[in-house]
Amino acid sequence: MHHQLKPPEAATLPRHLLEAHVVWLVRQCRSLRALRGAHARLLRLRLPRLTHALALSKLLASCAASAPTAAAASYARSLFDQIPEPTAFCYNSLIRALATPSNPTADAFLLYRRMLRAGSPSPNSFTVAFALKACATVPALGEGRQLHSQAFRQGLEPSPYVQTGLLNLYARCEEVALAKSVFDGMAEDRNLVAWSSMIGGYSRVGMVNEALDLFRDMQAAGVNPDEVTMVSVISACAKAGALDLGRWVHAFIDRKGITVDLELSTALIDMYAKCGLIERARLVFDAMVERDTKAWSAMIVGLAMHGLAEDALAIFSRMLQLKIRPNNVTFIGVLSACAHNGLVDDGQRYWSTMQEMGIKASMENYGCMVDLLCRSGLLDEAYSFVTSIWRNLLVASKSSNRTDIVGLASKKLFELEPQNPENYVLLSNLYALNSQWDRVRYMRKKMKDNNVTVVAGCSSIEINSYLHKFVVSDGSHPEIKEIRVVLREIADRVLRSGHKPWTAAVLHDVGEEEKEIALCEHSERLAIAYGLLKTKAPHVIRVVKNLRFCPDCHEVSKIISKSYGREIIVRDRVRFHRFIGGSCSCKDFW
DNA sequence: CTAGGGTTAG
């Protein structure tokens, strides 16, 4: 059919031709707008009842296959509501359309339940697969698990699409053990998507070695990775700060001719930034043919993380010139760049820009602002800026002697988040700083009473493409004897340099001598010692820590860099520290 | 009509 049908013609045509016209018309549509236009045209044709129902379900399916936006979801719902007796196909399409990230109420899951309650039509493997995707998108683990058991009861579990849906649900919910058990059960059905999903799951939770092992297994199984797989692999390297691995994986991508698309480029930018090669990150960014908000944000956040505020802000203004709309993450980069460099006025200007652009501030954005103000001594302004961000206030009060704010903020904080271990550690540190050991003891008791456990500090270093992890006083490493020899030598050199161990960094109320021993075995120090043991200058010792740098280990690292003539780069939870010749790139301001 | 990916303060 090559022309637009007009109402008088429509009435005279046989049904199969009308249906062909409907299918043709809907297939032309490339956007939601076009779909609405086609819808209006079909209405004017006054189609017979059955053809009209077909038209609606075709429109609905097309809507479901379009970009998953809130607008598409609400249009899909209105289409669905006009269909008198929705088939399973219609339910499937609507469930698919409702699976948007902006749908926190898990509407898709509610619709699935409604379908079950109604008794007919009964769900099929498509229904479950789409509903699982909805749960994975939110993500909603509880609802997903219910789907799992219902799928099992209805015999839909064996479908490969349901299997991958389950695997992906668990992987996205960071339930790697569950994901792995689904993956293991798939055996013959393991395809590219299943492998990628499982690797993504490991990468998401920071199980880097597992992700890379699986990546190797995948190739051994004869499945060729594509750009989606590589995003997860690169992102695992980024998380670990594993530069050599990251570089190797990048070379692999080039060697295999895998397309470096928007997402993969963004992952590469993030990887090089987080592994300390900000120039390489910049090269990847400059080579991109298409850049979206996330790509710009990754570059800006990366530059900010390296203390390169000027570059970060220059990139940001180029982004605005090109009319790319920033989001709250972009502003985290912009504001933290300002905070790290004492640019209070700029920071406040960017804050207003953010409001003017109608971007809703996240908790993190408020945090950046409070940080910015506090670093410039504007404590009272910060206090009135957001009375609800008690923890930030507490962080900022550390060096202020404002016991009134500390008391109030900690009281509020423990009311609001009695289970967050960071709050306890934070306050304990404050008390320890002032040698208020009875209060430190009280915090420990309070933690125990409330069943709160701290996150263990963990540092890692990559040697010969293997990631070695250390926790405090960790005796589990196979080369621990040799490491301890290095540690003793470090302690000797530190002593001779005149450094006094900053024992307040040890939270236990133990004797001074024991504190010194505990300090010497902090995870970051074990990792650095291992780096000294396994590599020779000018090789750079690169360590990644999951928490913030211990202040004493920071001093000691400066001494090591001078005394051993080694360059040491440590990424802590917040930023990079680069030690050369006895000083650190953070200039002791962190 | 089915499934997998990137940026997040201190």
From TrEMBL:
PROSITE patterns: PPR. Keywords: Repeat, Transit peptide. GO terms for biological process: RNA modification. It holds the Pfam family PPR_2. InterPro entries: DYW_dom, E2_motif, E_motif, PPR_At4g14850-like_plant, PPR_rpt, TPR-like_helical_dom_sf. One of its GO terms (molecular function) is zinc ion binding. This is DYW domain-containing protein. Signal peptide: none annotated. PPR repeats lie at residues 191-225, 292-326, 327-361. Residues 498-590 form the DYW domain.
